[in-house]
Amino acid sequence: GAVVSQHPSWVICKSGTSVKIECRSLDFQATTMFWYRQFPKQSLMLMATSNEGSKATYEQGVEKDKFLINHASLTLSTLTVTSAHPEDSSFYICSASTILAPSPYNEQFFGPGTRLTVL
Amino acid sequence: AQTVTQSQPEMSVQEAETVTLSCTYDTSESNYYLFWYKQPPSRQMILVIRQEAYKQQNATENRFSVNFQKAAKSFSLKISDSQLGDTAMYFCAFTRDDKIIFGKGTRLHILP
């Protein structure tokens, strides 16, 4: 249980185009979804937090107009990289959070990631 | 600022040996959770072990155990009888509310 999928697993696009990445919780309803960015040999950096039906909360320094997040349902969140440029090339990871009783902690389950390459 | 420091960027040990990865963190909160995550070459994040800060007893999961020193804000991971499959990037992390804050990671190589 508690599986999170991402689609696509990798994508190559031309500079100036937009790319959409989907994150789905397959067997549970996620109260919150998170989007991370990971550069090669570096750590995960939280980009934004989203709750179903409300606007995403972006971390400082993340351009909300460039990285559009939509959280349409309790099982789906999408990240759209608008007008992508080569510097947006990175590994994007989502996670979905749910309460696993009896633990009071909202466990986060990670997707397998999406590698974006912008030419 | 809340931070996580992993002072060992890279480590190598022989298979079957025991290895300890260090981690210190800084938070002003009294209640939080600490984690070690493993990221193998597939890049899938895998939760290795979790510690609740209000629990004094160190968490263990099979070959993985932690040494949690709350006053020192230290949270090290010990891997016993290391296996080739343990080769991965290991991230120390802690959470407040719903966010997870990651350290920069330690790349661990298990040598045959």
Q: How would you describe what is shown here?
A:
The complex is a heterodimer of chains A (119) and B (112). In chain A, the strands form two sheets. In chain A, strands 2, 4, 5, 6, 9, 10 and 11 form a seven-stranded mixed β-sheet that branches. Chain A has a four-stranded antiparallel β-sheet with strand order 1-3-8-7, with no helix packed on it. Chain A is built from no helices and eleven strands. Chain A has strands at 4-7, 10-13, 19-25, 32-38, 44-51, 57-58, 67-73, 76-81, 90-99, 106-110, 114-118. The mean pLDDT of chain A is 91. Chain A starts with a strand and ends with a strand. With 119 residues, chain A is mainly beta. Chain B has 112 residues and is mostly beta strands. Chain B is 0% helix and 54% strand. Chain B is built from no helices and twelve strands. Chain B has strands spanning 3-5, 10-14, 19-21, 24-26, 33-39, 46-52, 60-61, 64-69, 74-79, 88-96, 99-102, 106-111. In chain B, strands 2, 5, 6, 10, 11 and 12 form a six-stranded mixed β-sheet that branches. Chain B has a four-stranded antiparallel β-sheet with strand order 3-9-8-7, with no helix packed on it. Chain B is globular, with a radius of gyration of 13 Å. Chain B starts with a strand and ends with a strand. At the A-B interface, strand 4, strand 5, strand 9 and strand 10 of A face strand 11 of B.
Beta-strand content estimate of chain B? over 45%
What's the average pLDDT of chain B? 94
Q: Tell me the number of strands of chain B.
A: 12
First-last Cα distance of chain B = 41 Å
Mean pLDDT level of chain A: 91
Helical element count of chain B?
0
Weakly predicted, low-confidence segments of chain B:
none
Number of strands of chain A: 11
Helix and strand pattern of chain A? EEEEEEEEEEE
What is the string of SSEs of chain B from the N terminus onward? EEEEEEEEEEEE
Can you tell me the residue ranges of chain A where pLDDT is under 50 for at least 5 consecutive residues? none
The computed structural class of chain B is mainly beta
Gyration radius from CA atoms of chain A, angstroms = 14 Å
Number of helices of chain A: 0
